[in-house]
Amino acid sequence: MALLHMHFKSPTLVMQTNVTVVLPESEQLFTSRTNTKLKTLYLLHGLSNDSSIYTRFTNIERYASNRNVAVVMPSVDHSFYADMKYGHNYFSFVQKELRTFMLNVLPLSDKREDNFVAGHSMGGYGAFKLALTNPELFSAAASLSGAMDINRFLQDGVFNGFNAKSIFGEVDSLKDTEHDLYKLLKDRQSEQAVLPKLLQMCGTEDYLYEDNVNFKNYALSLKTDLDYREGPGDHNWEYWEYAIKEVMDWLPLD
């Protein structure tokens, strides 16, 4: 596998940013004028992490090599994958600009069936937010210990020293907004949109376990095609190392 650390100025963020990419070293990629286009997993970090975290705490390179899939890992600060009220437009960056940039500089497929998104904690929320906002872009999405109830974060106010108001502004509730996974899922179902395959995983000792169960029950009440898995595990890398391997085996990569 090739490990790329890419630094570039983002027009959307109006600043330098960085992305970590794991790229399969297929022999076809080294031939002239190759038409090989790789399937791609956009892998999203949690609240206290950055683009390097999966390469440091999991075996994502080995899993990606075994399945011949590119993995793109952006950095989005504490944004909760939102266009922040007092900050940068990270949702627009990941949703539009990052994908376009990657397609222009790397041999990645632009086909819906070849693009996937996943993440843990804040990134699990972000993965479902991206997939449910733009189901035409991704064929599969996975949330690992995801923050499925965004109002919990808002009500906590200050989370690990970071104020939620910098993201969402002076609001009392995010219910029925573009940030609410419940609303996004209901809207896509009412539109009869073709949803991505959805995988939701959470450890039973995780502090977000109840939120995950509630979202799973809501999704199933809407007859959503959701693969839900739970088992022993906490909100930590021991669980996420196990879970990301499950995600790689679950993705339609064959």
Protein architecture, described:
The protein has one domain: Alpha/Beta hydrolase fold, catalytic domain (Rossmann fold). Helix content is 35%, strand content 22%. The protein has helices at residues 53-57, 60-67, 90-105, 122-133, 150-156, 165-168, 181-190, 209-221, 237-250; strands at 2-10, 15-23, 40-44, 70-74, 115-120, 140-144, 158-159, 162-163, 197-203, 226-231. An eight-stranded mixed sheet has the order 1-2-4-3-5-6-9-10, with helices on both faces. A two-stranded antiparallel ribbon has the order 7-8. β5, α4 and β6 (140-144) form a beta-alpha-beta unit. The longest helix is centred in the middle third of the chain and has 16 residues, at 90-105. The radius of gyration is 17 Å and the shape is globular. The protein starts with a strand and ends with a helix.
**Total of domains:** 1
Any idea of the CATH topology? Rossmann fold
Per CATH, the superfamily is Alpha/Beta hydrolase fold, catalytic domain
Q: Which bin fits the share of residues in helices?
A: 25-40%
**Cα-to-Cα separation, first versus last residue:** 18 Å
The ordered string of helix (H) and strand (E) elements is: EEEHHEHEHEHEEHHEHEH
Kindly provide the radius of gyration, computed on alpha-carbon positions and rounded to a whole number of angstroms: 17 Å
Strand content is 15-25%
- The number of helical segments is 9
User: Can you count the beta strands?
Assistant: 10
CATH class placement: Alpha Beta
Structure classification = alpha/beta
How can the largest sheet be summarized? Answer: 8 strands, mixed
Q: Overall mean pLDDT score?
A: 93
CATH architecture label name: 3-Layer(aba) Sandwich
